[in-house]
Structures are given as structure tokens and as C-alpha cells.
Amino acid sequence: MLILHTVYELNQLNYKHMKKFKFFPIVLGMLIVAFMASCTKDGVYNPKKKINMVYKASSEDYNGTHYEAQRYLAEKWTWDNKTLSSIQYFNDGSYTENFTYDGNRLTRIDVYENSEYITFDYDGKYLKTANINHGGKPEGSVSFVYNNKKLSELRVTYYDTKSNHESRLFASVLPFTSEVNEMLVEFTEKAVATKGVEFVTYKCTWTGDNISQVMASWDDGDVLNINISYDDKINPLKGFLGYGMEGDVVTSFYSKNNPTQVMRTWVGENPYIYTYNYQYDGDNYPTMVMRSRREEDYSYSYSTYYEYQ
After folding, report:
1. Are 108 and 118 in contact (CB under 8 A)?
2. What is the pTM of this model?
3. Averaged pLDDT score across all residues of the chain
């Protein structure tokens, strides 16, 4: 099942040689800018209801054949009173993200199994920079620009570390299966190795308390537009920096509500449209989200189930 899905996704991604690696800095930016656009300090994550366990399941239909994957435990969240101390991931091998704070403000995430970490620097209430390091070498950085107290622009730099390692912090947040994520990271390392560094700029448009559009642009002139629609319910991840969410909704970190549709469009090409359907509890927190996409002879869906403390 996963092999068919991986081949399909890779065929879609390989149609243009420059496109193979440009999803990488996009998701890097999405990983790092998980913050609250309000009077609350960036880097402080203390939701009313705290996630405890995350379960996942998937299904696929390809050329008339249906495949179904059993629901399994994907993540275990460990809290130290009001702060999240770690997330253990069980999909595609077990590893743990460990969180360090200055008071209740997140300053660092470590993946010890991979000698990889991210550090966060702030300017007053706002996130200023994020730096990614692997094995003692810089791997990437993000700078943040604000307008009227809301994020308006991200400037991302990705460096060639020449380490050929599997990036847990990067690969875990790409919005595809883990197999495709690993391939994209490999493509990125090879592409960046040709010139040593890659730059991308993101410009964000807000509708109310949600980011409704992100425009990503590269020095070679390629442009990717991401348009996002939302529900009116509580986003349990709002304000949380650096949550991997393997194979699931990446853009939900930014905004007050939960995405219901994400449309990614390279200028001059047909869009990729992903839909999200939710189930909620009595407090309007999502307990299940199903991410899906459909083609002529192929469709798939991923379901994520949240259990709260």
C-alpha cells in the first residue's frame, strides 16, 4: 500500500527538476512559525485542553484496489505541569522531540537520536529567528518580519551540511507519507549541494485570525501560492512551535482555527487540493481529522485521532 502511494506522489513531484526540493524550505518555514498572532508571547504554549495521545490510520484506492491500514499509536505527549516536555513518535521508527524552556517560553527542541536541534530567539513578545543545527553544523535558519503585530514575511535559508543524514525535524513535518518525506529530504540535500545554499521568501496574508494565503518565491523566479480555508472551531495546536505532525496538517500551527482545505498552486500549473474533515468534542476541540485527496484513478485519506488529558 505505502509503496504504491510513494510511487504516485514521487511521480507528481518529479515532473519539474527544480520542484523536487522546494517543498523542503516551505515546510521548514511552516514548522518554525507555529506561533500565536495575538498579545500572547510567541513561544508560550499552554492550551486549555492538552493532547495526550495521537493515533493514526490510512486508506487508499488505486486502480480499483482498496487498501486499509489499522489504527495505531503514533505519538505520546508528556507534560510537566503547564509545559510540554517531550513528544515521542512511533511512526517510521521511534524518536523523541525534547523541549527546553526559559520559564514557560520555548527556546530549543532536540532530537538526540539524530544529533539535531532547533533554537528560537525572541525580540520582546515576538519570535525573531530560528536556527536549525545538525551535528554541530548550521543546517538552516528563518528570520521573521511583522506588520501590525502579525507575521507578514519569512526569510528562510537552507545550508548544505554534506552529512547525508535523515533529518528528523525536517522530514517529520513534510505533508506526505514518511517514505516521500525521506525522498524529498534526499532530493533537497542533493540540490542544495550544487550551490551550497538555498533561499526562499514567504509572504503571508491574513483573514481575521487565520493565515489565508502564503506566497513562496525563489531567486530563479518560481512562485508557489498556498490558499487555506478554515472551520470556526478551536485549533489545539495554535501557538505551538515545532510540532512534527507527520503526514498531516502543517498549516494549522499558524492560526486560530483548523484548516478545511489547502490548495497549493505553482504559477502556470494545475493546483493540488487537499481537504480536511473533522469530528469535535463538546468543547469544540477536534478529536479526529481526515486529510484526503482524489485523482482520476487514485485516492487516499489519512485520519488522525486526538486524545486529551
Report:
1. yes
2. 0.79
3. 76
